[in-house]
Amino acid sequence: MRFKTRLSLDIAFKYIFKITGLLVLAALAGILGMLVYNSFSFFMDVRPFDFITGMEWNPTGKNPKYGMLPLIVSTTLVTFGAMLIAIPLGIGTAAFISEYASAKVKNILKPMIEMLAAVPSVVIGFLGIVLVGPGIADLANLPNGLNALNGAVLLAVMALPTIITIAEDAIHAIPKTYKEASYALGATKWETLCKVTIPAAAPGIIAAIMLGVGRAVGETMTVLMATGNAALLPDGMFDSVKTMTATIAIEMGEVPYRTTHYFALYAIATVLFGMTLVANLVGEYFINRFRKYHAA
Amino acid sequence: MQRKKFKLSSAVEWGTLLLSTGLVCFFLIVILLEIIMKGSGSLSWNFIADIPREGMTKGGILTPIIGTVLLTMLTALFSIPFGVCCAIYLNEYAENNWLTRIIRAAIRNLSGVPSIIYGLFGLALFVQALQFGTSMLAAGMTLGLLSLPYIITTTEEALMRIPASMREAALAVGATKFETIKDVVIPSAMPGILTGVVLTLSRAAGETAPILFTGAAFYINGVGGAVNNEFMALPYHLYMLSTQHQSIEEVRPIAYGTALVLIIVVFLMNLTAFYIRYKYRKNEY
Prior knowledge:
The structure holds 2 protein chains of 2 kinds. Chain A is 78% helix and 1% strand. Chain A is mainly α. Chain A has 2 domains: 3-45; 57-295, Orthogonal Bundle (MetI-like fold). A two-stranded antiparallel sheet of chain A has the order 1-2. Chain A is globular and about 75 Å long. By secondary structure, chain B is mainly α. Chain B has 2 domains: 2-39; 47-284, MetI-like (MetI-like fold, Orthogonal Bundle), CATH 1.10.3720. Chain B is built from 10 helices and 2 strands. Chain B has helices at residues 2-39, 45-49, 62-93, 98-112, 115-129, 136-160, 164-172, 177-206, 234-243, 252-284; strands at 52-53, 58-59. Chain B has a two-stranded antiparallel sheet with strand order 1-2. Chain B is globular and about 70 Å long.
């Protein structure tokens, strides 16, 4: 090839690569723009304050009500329940893999956790209907098991791989000298783990939890299939709930284009986007803090 | 006495960790056993090679299988070129300035966006604004966008592992920067890039929320496969059979079979990725 062609090809591709980089920015800007534009159209009809604090979600009634508080409470309840299960299990497993397991056991456990992460959410939701739901109904004497507890158990399973992987990295990164100093003072392995290793890995573990929360809040199919979808303010874990993601998934298919209800679903999506963004940003902040701390 | 107490407590402590690990493994085993035991009954050649019949209560799942395969190929078509090029830009060209930092922040942000919001974006942009209608094309583009941040991140990690000396050697014998990337960097990073791509596509193949409003159909006639039409897909088929079908109990065996096929597809893709990674690591030494 002539030198000139080679050179112009070099320059052309430099710009092509740069354009794809800018395209990613455009994608995020597009998503944000869509959310803001459609939410804005919604807030022309309904006051933002009524939307956030309204106690009733009934957009198809004669006198439509757009109060998303029950949806926010539902999402929070299910996520909270999921974390109650997933955090102790996740940290315990991460500590076991990092501190106790031999190389051989590690080589079995790590692929197993990757496999758990690979199970599609719709399959987990299906198991919520055929396995976990009936199980809960039997144990608690309920007519059916499609409730917040079911969703929490399933979301815990979905969040576990994220929590375990990141927490394990954090615990693994603690310098050996910390532990040796603790052993030298006469501490047992358990005391060292609880009082030295885990506190030192705390930023990484908090990051793991926050990213798990982000995953649970944004999960759609599992909660859509397993929680019963009654848009009322739930009283407890045995009540049927309708999360924000499930509301969008159910109602977007039926709603007429560019009505108040249509825009309302985008407004829910904006709140959802905000919630996951905060969870992920907090997670990222702690990951960076952890990296800085241990690089020094 | 002191020594005995010490031993007992350490057994309890060790047991707690073992128990939590055991529970996590138990979840995976229950998921797999339930799907395999109840799904293998309906699995047969006919189930895979026949289209759904009689209101989906009989016949097989050929149409959703074809839909998922084609959809995943479309996803690959839209996400791989952009993802790989963007990773090349970030790792090979970008200077450490404000623009690069914003692009990196955008990528991290995109990977945390819930999949249902990608579905809304696909609906607003591809289905409505660009007038593709609810079609496989719109769904493929939506999934492509969803996969983009993962492909960029994994590709960039693969590129980072290539030592600078290899680039310098190519540049020293007179290659242009583009030639260095095309002939030296990309071929050596290929196993790493492939691993990331296959893992990302396996995730996309199992996604349901982004295709809910962008083109997945309850039922279509025949085997489907047209890019500009609605399609059936395995995850959506499973969702539909287990919640929306008018005779849910009757189609339960088909739902189990669909779940099994979906899991097999996803795990086979994962195993391929693990194999590539394993082989590549072995070659390093």
